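Student: I would love a firmer grasp of how sequence relates to backbone shape in proteins. I am handing you a single protein, as its sequence and its fold in token form. I am told such tokens are a discrete way to write the fold. I hope you can help me see how the letters and the tokens relate. Take your time, and here it is.
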Amino acid sequence: MTRQAGALVGLTAVVSFLLGLVSAGTGGGGGGRLSPVQALPLPSAADRAQPISIASGPMARPGGAGVDFATVAESLNAAVVNVDNAARGGGDASPRFSQRYQRNYSDTPNGPREGSGSGFLIDPAGYLLTNYHVIEGADRLTVTLSDGRSYLATVVGIDPAIDVALLKIPVTGPVTVAPLGRSDTLRVGEWVCAIGNPLGYVHSVTVGVVSFIGRKVFDQSLDALIQTDAAITFGNSGGPLINSRGEVVGMTTAVSALASNIGFAIPIDQVLDVLPQLRAHGRVARGFIGVGLTSVTPALDRALGLGVSEGALIQDVTPELPAARAGLRTYDVVVGIDGRPIRSDEELISYVSLRAPGSMADVEVLRERRRLRLAVKLAERPVPELLGSDPVPPDVRPAVSSELGPLGFTVRDLDTATVARRRIPSHLQGVIVSNVDAAGPARLAAIGEGQIILEINRQPVLTAAEFRAAVARLRPGEPVALLVFDRLSDQRLIATVVPDPPS
């Protein structure tokens, strides 16, 4: 169930795939696998709808010449966030979750899991973008800003097909949003930088060039990834790829398992194309006609006598699907749709995917050198099984465990036997942590079983009853300072926890 390996070099001249449907060489199965890739724990710009107000306009470089990524990083660092995913477990862990970026802290495969990735704010109201695999399977999503503010995040919309998720946080106070540029203007060799949280090193900045545009890695029908040699690693998932003008042109999503300088980013144009649906409906519905395609080449034209040098050649027509019902056939060349020319299979796939299911498309084909126009009623593109049958639904606020209280853990009294067995200093007075919610608010504060809680907001807690009474007086959303004795380090530590609201 993980979209993992794709062909990076030596692709055959003819690649067959179903329009709007994953097929050979896609995801975890099929052929064309030459170089493994790990995804990290994709109308014109003038026409696309933008329901979320976003920052715009290039950032001027002092002096007006050259590439100044120091200024770019200084301006955009505050728009980049850390996205922390915690899952309680209790079911089989998704292979995609476990292989992409997680740090598994359970002794069992289906136990509690945690992972972290990156994201970037696109709206002052608290909307942010990240990868779908960063939030997959979450029971709790915590977004931390560059200034240390942390918020529980709500999932607004998801698009597993291109690995994108739209989140919202109840932000208080001003935030920095990232200016969004255009990826269709990128050129191979252009300088870009990535900002993210690789391996937990928050707000790391790396610089490189665009190595390739339109790379197929996971999904042969939808991928058009930006390849870059800017250093990307686990934890960069969902962070921005930024051009030299300080505009986000992509979202980092994957890295080659065999090289340290081959990373991939989803073009920002592709993300913006689905934003209206993510916000309005929580999911993306793509048009679909059900054909296998390849681009016309001079060799195909010569061999088949097509009489055309460009277009999308139909290789296969799936029975009972829109193309078959409309009368499309193998060897038909699609040269236009809805009055616009089609020069390649990718152009046709991109256009149809952006059309609404149920709408009619006027398809112009060349059949044995005769031009025909066929009306095709689009269906909805199926969600590939490899993406999972139970994706995170939209409009979800990760569940709160009421059993463990608003701080996400319970305590018991320190008795003589426990003090002796755990070798706790006899002079300590407090309560011992007995159970911790793997996806609770105390997890980020590193509160663990066996630690001793000495004080809450400077007030001593000598018994479990005193602890529960102190917790009952806490206000949801207001940070709480805990004085904790950690037996492993033999030190007192001050931990900050933000209580959950009542469930």
Residues 1-36, 39-65, 91-108, 388-392 have pLDDT under 50 and may be disordered. Residues 1-284+381-395 form a domain with the Thrombin, subunit H fold (CATH 2.40.10.120). The first helix runs from residue 69 to 76.
